[in-house]
Prior knowledge:
The protein is mainly α.
Amino acid sequence: MHARLAGDPGAPARYAEQVAVLVEAHRRNRAAYYGQERRWPLHPFWARRQQPPQPPAPLRARAERGREAGTASDQSSSPGR
């Protein structure tokens, strides 16, 4: 946020994208880790963890909105436009 306060309009979108990448890596790692356990497939706790991870849609949508806002802002503040 320091970059945004310093005048960089694209900083929030880049930050949101970095967070989305980290969340996705965490989800893949968690799925791999829990996917190793096969002893109790019928128990709800483990059954939920055997399913493929769902994409974190709210974070991805938020990052895309921020990126679009940063792009529009970048274009409007560019000299000669």
